[in-house]
């Protein structure tokens, strides 16, 4: 959301390091579906102390994410490269094997499809909000 806002407003995006750190971005509808299925699983099995990872298990670099956002928004980002943070982890991603085993589900929306849906929603939501404010 912050990157999208910055790109659309032609404001710089701060990138700490060279942008090669990788994260596991997960489409929100996949997260919601997983949570619903986890709740059902916990209720059926009378559990209350389970931990599940929810993720796409397909990390991409920050620069790749920004490039994909640029493509979906059809605007180039202004990138502001800053020194890397010492606490930054190179790559993170979710091991969803327990999720798949217990509830038979794994988030599976590809990043491009998720970003396309997000970009459409963002444009519609904020255009509608602006129209509402103007009226």
Give an overview in words.
With 135 residues, the chain is mainly alpha-helical. The protein has one domain (2-129): Rossmann fold (3-Layer(aba) Sandwich), CATH 3.40.50.720. The chain has helices at 2-8, 28-44, 62-73, 97-103, 111-134, and strands spanning 12-16, 22-23, 60-61, 78-82. The strands form 2 sheets. Strands 1-4 form a two-stranded parallel sheet. The protein has a two-stranded antiparallel sheet with strand order 2-3. Helix 1 packs across helix 3 (62-73) and helix 3 (62-73) packs across helix 5 (111-134). The protein is globular.
Q: By helix and strand content, what is the structural category?
A: mainly alpha
| Number of helical stretches of at least 4 residues | 5
Number of domains: 1
Gap between N and C termini, in Å?
A: 25 Å
Oligomer: single chain
What is the topology?
Blueprint: H1 2-8, E1 12-16, E2 22-23, H2 28-44, E3 60-61, H3 62-73, E4 78-82, H4 97-103, H5 111-134
Parallel strand pairs: 1-4
Antiparallel strand pairs: 2-3
Helix pairs in contact: 1-3, 3-5
Structural features:
single chain, Rossmann fold, 50% helix, 135 residues, disordered C terminus, mainly alpha
Describe the structure concisely:
The protein is mainly alpha-helical.
């Amino acid at each position: 959301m912050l990157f999208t806002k910055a790109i659309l407003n032609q404001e710089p995006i701060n990138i700490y390091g060279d942008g090669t750190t990788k994260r596991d971005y997960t489409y929100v509808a996949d997260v919601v579906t997983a949570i619903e299925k986890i709740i059902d699983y916990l209720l059926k099995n009378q559990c209350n102390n389970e931990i599940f990872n929810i993720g796409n298990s397909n990390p991409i670099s920050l620069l790749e994410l920004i490039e994909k956002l640029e493509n979906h928004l059809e605007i180039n980002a202004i990138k502001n490269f800053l020194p890397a943070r010492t606490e930054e982890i190179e790559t993170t991603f979710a091991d969803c094997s327990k999720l798949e085993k217990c509830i038979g589900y794994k988030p599976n929306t590809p990043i491009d499809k998720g970003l396309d849906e997000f970009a459409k929603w963002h444009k519609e939501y904020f255009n509608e909000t602006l129209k509402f404010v103007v009226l």
